[in-house]
Write a structure and sequence with these properties.
The chain is mostly helical and about 200 residues long. About 50% of the residues lie in helices and about 5% in strands. The chain has helices at about 20-45, 60-80, 110-125, 150-160, 165-185, 190-199; strands at about 130, 135-140, 140-145.
Length: about 200
């Protein structure tokens, strides 16, 4: 008897080939992994700085910050949920309700290229190399670390925001697994179903 503590994985019949268990777990965990960062941002929309010391320029007007912060959090979660398509059948055959492409088979590269490029961009966006002296090397250049009024706010920020650094590598790993699953042993231009009928 096996224990089903976390969740029951989707049926294998949902996809052309079985999805590795690690890929399924990572894809479903990604939206939850990013949720703390999305929640961390929300107070900034109403100018509650979560213990951050004042920065030059300050925060934009509330009428700008509220839709920006809410939109950014919704976009983050939406993109993370779309990543689940790399382990589910709707990432292999477009859902029928989508105009023009609904019900059509998704070419592997049509999913892999955006996922891999997105993963690379996310990796560069959220990777900071510590240089010492409170400075970090990022995609934007060398920046000063954000200061906090006390250690508790700093610890909370670290716990909430650090998982963002895993977003890009996880997306790249899922894209590679998707590519390998969809193209393994398939002749050019031939689907696994057709290949199975020929045997």
């Amino acid at each position: 008897m096996t224990l089903k503590i976390l969740h029951r994985p989707p049926s294998v019949s949902d996809t052309e080939r079985p999805v590795p268990r690690w890929a399924t777990r990572l894809a479903y965990a990604l939206p939850l992994l990013l949720l703390p960062a999305c929640l961390w941002r929300l107070p900034f929309a109403v100018h509650f700085t979560m213990g951050q010391e004042a920065q030059e320029g300050g925060l934009p007007a509330v009428w700008v910050s509220i839709p920006y912060v809410l939109g950014l959090s919704v976009l983050t979660e939406s993109v993370a949920i779309l990543t689940i398509g790399l382990v589910r059948g709707w990432g292999e055959v477009a859902p029928a309700w989508i105009p023009v492409i609904g019900g059509r088979r998704v070419r592997p590269m049509a999913a892999v290229v955006p996922a891999a490029l997105g993963g690379l961009i996310l990796t560069f966006l959220f990777t900071a190399v510590p240089l010492g002296g409170g400075r970090h090397l990022t995609l934007y250049g060398v920046i000063d670390s954000v200061g906090y009024s006390n250690g508790a706010w700093n610890a909370l920020a670290t716990v909430c925001v650090t998982p963002l650094a895993a977003w890009g590598p996880i997306t790249i790993a899922l894209a590679i697994a998707y590519y390998r699953r969809r193209t393994r042993g398939v002749d050019a231009g031939e689907s696994p179903q057709v290949r199975g009928r020929r045997r």
